[in-house]
Amino acid sequence: MGVKTFKPYTPTRRFITVEDFSDITRDEPYKPLTVPLHKHAGRNNTGRIMVRHRGGGHKRLYRIIDFKRDKFDIPATVESIEYDPNRSARIALVRYEDGERRYILCPLGLKVSDVVISSRKNPIDIKIGNAMPLKNIPDGTIIHNIELIPNEGGKVVRSAGSWAQVLAKEGDYVHVKLPSGEIRLFSKECLATIGQVSNPDHKNVVLGKAGRSRHLGFRPTVRGTKMNACDHPHGGGRGRSKGNNHPRTPWGQPCKGFKTRKKNKPNSWKIVRSRHEVQ
After folding, report:
1. Which domains does the chain show, CATH number per domain?
2. How far apart are alpha carbons 96 and 34 in whole angstroms?
3. How far apart are CA 102 and CA 33, in angstroms?
4. pLDDT for 58-103, tens place per residue?
5. Where are the beta strands (DSSP E) in the chain?
6. In DSSP terms, which residues pair with 166 in a beta bridge?
């Protein structure tokens, strides 16, 4: 894995970088594990735009990923490492001993012909790609794809290059340090996968031109100061002016340093150290 640069034979090529895809071993997805992906352009079921600046983009097939890792105590051999257009990480196609194939998130360092296994009750090796409950993972271990609620499947730490760390165990809960620096309590029965998520160079890629954003499904963003007063708190006026407003969102919420996290959520007690407290 790495980042590829180009000779500046056009002004845009001077800045563009792309992933070199050297870790990819198969070009086409395994068709039985794909479904059509219909675009919604940021709209909900009533047709209203819920997320701005979405639409267009290249056509995709969705790869069905096994985030639950619930085929327990059956070894699986890695058949291929593949690109997934729906996520920043790589995915791995694994074949279980009974012949079933599944896609899993590919950890950094996993290779073709490696064997991975998932277990909830039996002890297994602390090896990259193996999945087990947090209670069985030693302190200090790097993990990813962590369940928030047992048996619901991994929900956090799934993007390219991310990882969390097991810090300590206390009663029915395990202290885990998340990528944001936040320390959170997870049930000791929650499954997690050993290792760091693959493709850590994803964050170093420079799109370099507007067209690449459009291919990804992102539409242009207009600055608030260029809008009318009825469209944005920064709009209106003559020239470049915010109208004596502090920086705000289009809906009037302050957007520099204003904390929006609720303190009395049902699971607030599970947060040992907030990401806002990170030095």
Report:
1. 3-203 (2.40.50.140)
2. 18
3. 7
4. 999 999 999 999 999 999 999 999 999 999 999 999 999 998 999 9
5. 3-4, 18-19, 34-36, 61-63, 76-82, 91-96, 101-105, 115-116, 131-133, 142-144, 146-147, 154-156, 164-170, 173-177, 183-187, 191-194, 271-273
6. 176
